[in-house]
Design brief:
The structure is a homodimer.
Chain A (H helix, E strand, L loop, with lengths): L3 H8 L9 H14 L12 H8 L3 H13 L3 E4 L3 E4 L4 H7 L3 E3 L8 E11 L2 H7 L6 E11 L2 E11 L15 H9 L3 E12 L2 H7 L6 E11 L4 E9 L4 E7 L1
Antiparallel strand pairs in A: 1-2, 3-10, 4-5, 5-6, 6-9, 7-8, 8-9
Chain A binds a DNA duplex through helix 4.
DNA sequence: AAGTGGTCTAGACCACTTC
DNA sequence: AAGTGGTCTAGACCACTTC
């Protein structure tokens, strides 16, 4: 039995072209993730349970879950179940952190907060984070080091309303984990723009190098499950012993 | 009927762990692509035909073809058929060429050959391209420009035995298309390592800029369908009006 | 109208994990 | 032994393209 018409009505998509059942199931399950029905690391109900509950076949649920696994939203483990993806350091490291030592080793850098402030968003922040006028942002400046050697200075801007109280918290190394755990905000994808630049005076001091040295500037916008801007981060990286790894197929 | 045992024997994989049927079908179809049974742009037989020929269900063929489509090896078009992926400029541009104008426009740069030579591979080339001692390489140096402005100098190394006669050919803008059409070599994936560097004297002259200017160095290794090294390319890019775009999820 | 890939179902069995 | 996801089949029907 094909219930796509009913589900389409439930999801509120009338005749916007053809939208297959498994897509609707996927969208409904993502909505539940957004709503925090299951916390990161928790198992979802089994395929059979979800199929019965949603009134579709197990195969359709499987196709929806496979699509979500391909998007790194859930993790599937044969014999165990399907789990909400977690933002632990290991995942961040392989999914979003592309800097690798020239010897091939990946090391997650330690962080030290250099400065933190809250203020009205400036024009660039409003445009990048798609903020309404007068929205406040939290600005964080951090120095990141590997084996004690400073390699990255980063300037982070966050929409204050999305992260109430964050400015007063102790900040961990892995901010994405904090966003997920404390604010229910999941970073699902990022867009990074890379350029080569000369290090400016200020950054040079923080990095213990000379002004004018070449550095890799990474301008990153992080998006939530709902594709809303969550964080804008501009990093300046010394790439003497590191490189940015990009694998394409 | 499940014929996985038979196919496993055909493929010569005995008890190397479990290897599902659709995987074996995928591997056999990739072998045919490597052998040039179907040329780029040509349609494969329909799912039903392949299923009958290989003695598996249509669903299993579908799963194999879907996996190949996810790897960009074939293109599937509803109502028309499944086609061998082509290395046309448009595909290269979106799949392997990550430099985008700061205005968001993608422009495939024009190329001019600055130099070409054939010689025994040096140690670095042997190591990177996994070549036997005394193997010869073709070295190409090109200048690439957008709207007439030079933005990239690239140094390319190719294993001579894989591309016999290439050194004497007229070289098009899009080398990957040439490799596929004239030598049956498909670039299926690349690994890029990015660093920020200072432009050296020689490159500065070619790029009409000053030595010491910051530039993005892209060290790219291209692999074939069989994951053999095909091309080593080191590009030095001026990123004043361009950036390298990396989208992660 | 005929042919293609895309979706959906139902059911059998397998690989793997947990108890 | 029981439960999970993974594979495979067979068959119906749909969306889309071509003739």
């Amino acid at each position: 039995m094909n219930e796509s018409k009913e589900l389409a009505e439930v999801a509120g998509a009338e005749s916007l072209g053809f939208r297959p059942l498994y897509r609707q199931v996927r969208d409904r399950l993502i909505r539940r993730l957004v709503d925090g029905v299951w916390a990161p690391g928790e198992p979802l109900p089994s395929e059979i349970q979800l199929a019965a509950e949603l009134g579709v076949s197990q195969g359709t649920v499987r196709k929806a879950l496979d699509a979500m696994a391909a998007e790194n939203l859930v993790v599937r483990r044969q014999g165990r179940g399907t789990f909400v993806a977690r933002h632990d350091e290991e995942r961040i490291m392989f999914q979003f952190f592309k800097l690798v030592g020239d010897d091939g080793r990946r090391t997650f850098p330690q962080s030290r907060v250099l400065g933190l402030s809250v203020a009205k968003a400036n024009a660039a922040e409003r445009a990048t984070l798609k903020l309404a006028k007068d929205t406040r942002v939290i600005r964080i400046r951090r120095l990141r080091s590997i084996d004690g050697a400073p390699v990255i200075v980063e300037n982070i801007a966050l929409p204050e309303p999305m992260f109430p109280g964050l400015a007063a918290m102790e900040l961990p190394n892995n901010l994405y984990g904090l966003y997920a755990m404390r604010f229910g905000v999941t970073v699902a994808s990022t867009r990074e723009q890379l350029k080569a630049v000369s290090v400016c005076e200020t950054d040079a001091k923080a990095l213990s190098t000379e002004a004018g040295a070449p550095a890799l500037k990474i301008d990153r916008l992080a998006l939530s499950l709902e594709r809303q801007p969550v964080e804008w981060r501009v990093s300046v990286c010394l790439t003497d012993k590191l490189h940015y790894l990009s694998e394409l197929r």
